[in-house]
Amino acid sequence: MEQGEALPTEWIEATLRAALLEDGRRLLEGLLAQVPVPVVAPQPGQRCYHERACEVLSVFGALTLRRDYYHPAGPEGGFPLDRALGIIGGCTPGAARMLGRAAAQLPYLESSQQLQALAGLTVDPSQIQRVVQLLGPPAQACLVKLPGPSPKPGRQFYVSIDGTGVPMVRPELEGRSGRGPDGQAKTREVKLAAFFTQTTTDAEGHPLRDPESTTYLASFVSSDPFGRQALQAARQRAMAQASQVIYLGDGAAWVWEIARTCFPQAVQILDYYHASEHIVTLAKALYADPGTAQNWAVRWQSLLYDSQLDDLFTDVGTVTTTPAEDVQRELDCLERNRTRMDYLRYRKQGWFIGSGVVEAGCKRVIGQRLKQSGMFWTEAGATAVLA
Question: What is the per-residue pLDDT across 366-375, written as a single tens digit (0 to 9) for each?
């Protein structure tokens, strides 16, 4: 090595890591080899094949295990040692967790590349997919039963529900109508519920989410069973111990039907930004001149923000006594949600008035992972990744 030349530090690190992983792999392999094989009484007609060799992925790399195999599987068949060690999809629990965590963030091929680069693990994308499909169903069941944060005096409990479309393979869309020119659906809706709590406000009175209180629940099921799932999840998260339950949503009818049937004790709040969008649409429908429409939209948004809805409707009434269809549609929407738009009171209480948490979840939890270019999903595959 020439004087002044930089040390090949990265090569040294990579070589040392590979050696340490190999030492760890051999040590773990030796330890697991000493675990007693569970004794199983063979069922009638069942045969035992002793010490079948199998490769298992661990956090240190591939291990070779020898364990008894019972065929046909039956209730006590298969590989009893795998159940004793918690092996799932050919992975140790630690490796399965790593694969699942990577696949929740990235497509399977990129997950494989990240695991190689960051953890030194060589794993085929297809194995990651298989593990995710095994981890998904039990994870989905656990999501409903997640515990809530420790109760605090004055704690508000928020439920916010929304939905977003996920591109699906053609067989999953048969018989479903869509908005495209051909009338054929290209996506299916995933419903997402966000749960979080709020105890304090900042110096200016703006609400602050409690740290680490946000959890999600997602499903392809229809609104009625999803509402029941959301209610069960909210109860598990200690909703009943909150001083106030607040339900945030946009204008979708199914969102408010869930609120009516499953969360009748909650204060219902229409997301302020959705309401503001209706105000802008109303102004554009009433005034052809863009500048005039914008000026009135700003005034009406201010009235909306301060809960002066009577003044807002009076303004509109001075412009037209026989509203056009598009104007009437926006007025009907505002009137229908009138009891959910008392934003001045909500702000005085220090509550959130926007459904940004669940909308961010639709973009990050669902969109960032399931709606990338070229992706088309089965319901089972998408549900496993979501969970």
Answer: 999 999 999 9
